[in-house]
Design goal:
The protein has 331 residues and is α/β, with parallel strands linked by helices. The protein has one domain (72-330): Alpha/Beta hydrolase fold, catalytic domain (Rossmann fold, 3-Layer(aba) Sandwich), CATH 3.40.50. 49% of the residues lie in helices and 15% in strands. It has 14 helices and eight strands. Strand 5 (146-151), helix 6 (153-164) and strand 6 (169-175) form a beta-alpha-beta unit. Helix 1 packs across helix 2, helix 5 (127-140) packs across helix 6 and helix 8 packs across helix 11. The longest helix is centred in the first third of the chain and has 30 residues, at 23-52. The protein is globular and about 85 Å long.
Length: 331
Amino acid sequence: MKTIRSRSPSLTAIYVDNVKKYPVAAAFATAAGVLTAAAFVNWRLAKKAERENPPQGRFLEIDGVHLHYVERGTGEPLVLLHGNGSMIQDFESSGLIELASQSYRTIVFDRPGFGHSTRPRNVVWTPQAQADLFNKALVRLNVDRAIVLGHSWGASVAIALATRHPSMVAALVLASGYYFPTARADVLAQSGPAIPGFGDVAATTVAPLLSRAIWPLMLRKLFGPAAVPGKFHGFPKAMAVRPSQIRASAAEAAMMIPAAFHGSKSYGELKLPVVIIAGEDDRLIDIDEQSGRLHSELKQSKMRRVAGAGHMVQQSATNDVMDAIHEAGAN
């Protein structure tokens, strides 16, 4: 009895044949499959990061924002605002919250889109928009006349809070801020995931994987020339490279230069005590063009230049930052 063999082409043969006939369509299909797989992996990793790093504080619901904050200590109110791409755990791991809460009622926010705070997309989250949000939050918490410290992008938010709601702010501590518009090639590179459409795809697929790969290089630039301190290992990298946080970081990178241009017009309105602190060897920002220039324009300001420290001065020189807070509060 003869075995009848099918002469039908195999699935592999069909696939190869179609690739040859429709190479462009096949390439698109392959790319779509890879991107879909990457998006699924990043979604799973983001959910895992959130499970392993649950909220440590409480929430306020303000204008559609689920705003996460931590409050410690008693005394004169002190508000801490982190930089772009960061979250409460930056100040936590640095030890600044622990130090500050010994003398102050210390309130630390996850800014919109970072940590456990949401970032509604119907709002352009400029420093001014964030300042209005935090003013409402502080009113809700029965806070007024607070010392406000902002690091990096958070410094712009702190200034906006002081200029738009002067009765809320008693003094400012501005750490490693970017205050005046200058050419920034790194800003262009970081802004891709903020582009509508394309950015959503990049933020959910390629950008998180790339961010994980370049994390050590990024830390060397942020902390250099100082070494990354061991205490920073408590900072949850997995939370920082989630698609949602990458999108928020990209949006703030895209706004950096125009925000500095807009904000610089209001510096003359600042009449309150201001202490400016920056690492002498900041590799991200020219402190003479930024902190030094702001100090020269604000006659009532004082400036602390920290030798050997880079952009992450709150991590590398925590005691110096704490001294700056005490100095601001004493004025």
